[in-house]
Amino acid sequence: DLKKMEAEWEIIIENWKDTSPMFSEEGVQLLGRRLRRSARALHRNLQFQWPQHRTLVHGDLKTANIFFNEADTEVAVVDWQWCGEGVGVVDLQYLMHTSGSIEVLQAEQQILQLYHECLLANLRRFGKHDQAATYGLETMVGQYEVATLDYVRFLIGSMWGRTTPASCLANADCINQGMHKRSTAHLIWLVQKADGLLSQLEQRRGLAASELLQAPSLAAPSTMEPLSAAAASSSTAVDPIGSGAPVVAQVLSAAISLSELGGAVAREVYAKGDLRTVNKDADVAEGFDPQTEADRQVEELVVGSLRRLFPGLSVIGEEGMREFNQAAVPSPWCDEVAAWELSPELLKARLEDLTVWVDPLDGTREFVEGIPEAVTVLIGIAHRGSPVAGVIHRPWGLPSTNVDHSRHMTHGQGQTVWGALGIGVWGLRGGRGKGTAMCLPSATCNVLRVATSRSHKTAASSRAVEKVQPAEEFPHGGAGNKVLKVLEDEVDVWLFASGGTKRWDSCAGEALLRSVGGFLVSYDDGCPYDYSRDTPSQNSNGGRMKGSEAVGDVAE
Known about the structure:
six-stranded mixed beta sheet, alpha+beta, elongated, five-stranded mixed beta sheet, protein kinase activity
């Protein structure tokens, strides 16, 4: 239970403070907060960082659930708690920490090495030579450590509860309980282990514990589930950003939740049937630049909330709204991004160096024309003019079975794709994520699949496509939608050889592409766009977007 993790940990500290001086150390005293802030990141990395290393996970693999025949030649496991797909060392660390003696835990590294050798031997025995060749000991140990941290997070939030030295003594012979609930030495071992592993993650990014740990959370989390669809929360109490908190992580976490709330608003407006559409600019070339009630409500929610949550943050929305409902701030939400995931540059970013570009409803024309699957909510974050993080939310996304379940989709609807430099991109179809490199077939133009605009056809764009001579051309609506087509490998390139897009159309998508080795540049000169707060919003020179640097300048 993330909501009560810190309070539960304070109770545990009080109950155990006399058993070891470790419980008075700053890092250990704040372990509940540290693990709560890292909960989403741990779950996401454990579930989706290693898609090629999957097996059936038991979920409660302890000695009480394992039976051997008299000759010790066969084994049976009962009481499967999870019985789903996951990383195999989840069960290994569970068995070690629930059933292993202190001597077993002290020999942990030797046991892991032996397990790895036996695993590879069995993989080869069953003809899985490729898997054996690519599954190194270092990778397995890394998985084991992440699983251990996630397990201690679970114990603090759900299992340890009122465990005391006295209860451990009383339960010493209860073999159906984990050793960490019937042995003082085991509980202390796990706490020390978690503190050490988490400290390694934090120090790897150069985090100062005195700044990271003492900084208050922007908002206390309520649950691992997403925020409810009630976009206009009655809560108006907003906690200011802590001076020591990693700003990019906080802004990106807020953007993820707000994009999903915005998607819920868009679906609600669409379901009512009355879009209350107006023409924003009767002088545009197409003669119609629609704005709907969904555009207005989602901008009020996203832009208004970000401005109130982060006073001083520069937030620019497409609709240019200036007054916002005071009840629009959603609170609370979980830390979607852990500080230790950020690159050193982003970790040190200041609020005044960030600019957020918001398109509340990208693909409004398609929205009006009854093609909602092309619609996205776009939130891009730029640091000193360079796009570094972004969120693309599809309100009418893919079925929940096809998306990254580290993001619990509201009622099975919607798809949230987000990422940042150094973190990678998460939420793609099939659970793809964590720095997945976008590799295109070759630099030869005639094998490329090109996305073009569905509703902004120009002579210049037609000439560009003709020059490239792609194998296939796919007209799609919505800038965010086309970025997702590139990221999910449905197309290789998006060509838009004329003006029309704005910074709020491209900031989020460019950040995501850069996070996996892709790029977006001006069509005319190949230069990147500047996303500083004072820059013009118009992308006057069109754009070329690719999933990999390996393709070269196909439009030259």
